[in-house]
Amino acid sequence: SPDDRQTLTLRCVTHSALDRLPPITPAIETALKTMKAEGQVDIEATVEGPLRPSPSLRTTVTATLQNGSCLLPTGDSIEEADGTLRWQPDLLTVTGFRGKFRKEPFHLEGSLVNFARPEIDARFSWGNLKADGQLTIDGEQLEIQTTTGQLGTGTFRLFGEINGWKEPMGNLYGETTFKI
Fold it and tell me: CB 135: neighbour CB atoms within 10 A?
């Protein structure tokens, strides 16, 4: 009966410097050290759901970064980064992620669904570039369903696919318009 339902809610909250986070996974620990990641992060993890008639627990992890920075493999750095990353089963959402790259402000919002064959919907701006894109990753292939945007006074639309991560090859198609 409905009266027999029991629910569980567990919530854990922590505030830490990025370079002092306990190792979440070896890969994340290595990446944070390699990138010399710095900044403050608030992490909230929640597990909740009914225990009866059968357990159906849902996990959500939210990480909010403040004043973050990191060194990229290209030698460039991201500075003054703030934003929120939210993970749920088969869904990753980025909101309000902003900072500076090559001394120009950037902003990123978006989501990634279906971790087995990720589908990405993102909005990005950096300096005078603004873009919206829908992409799918299938193994070694990146399929660009459509990316539209603006660069300065011009507009563009791009679609196609790129195969391979180490030595990428692909077919990209598009159109652009510039005001003269």
Answer: 20
Q: Which two tokens stand for residue 166?
A: 């180490």
Find out whether 133 and 116 touch, Cβ atoms under 8 Å.
Answer: no
| Element spanning 33, H or E | helix 26-34
Q: How many angstroms separate the CA atoms of 78 and 39, rounded?
A: 11
> In terms of Cα–Cα distance, which of 62, 79, 77, 71 is closest to 11?
62
Residue 136, SS3? strand
Output the pLDDT for position 1: 41
d(CA 108, CA 132): 10
**Paired strand residues for 108:** 97, 124
* Residue bearing tokens 């300065």: 152
Q: How many residues does the chain have?
A: 180
d(CA 41, CA 65): 4
CA 81 to chain centre: 13
pLDDT digits (tens, 9 = 90+) for 38-80: 999 999 999 988 877 777 888 999 999 999 999 988 889 999 9
* 39, 81 contact by CB (below 8 A): yes
Q: What is the mean pLDDT of the chain?
A: 89
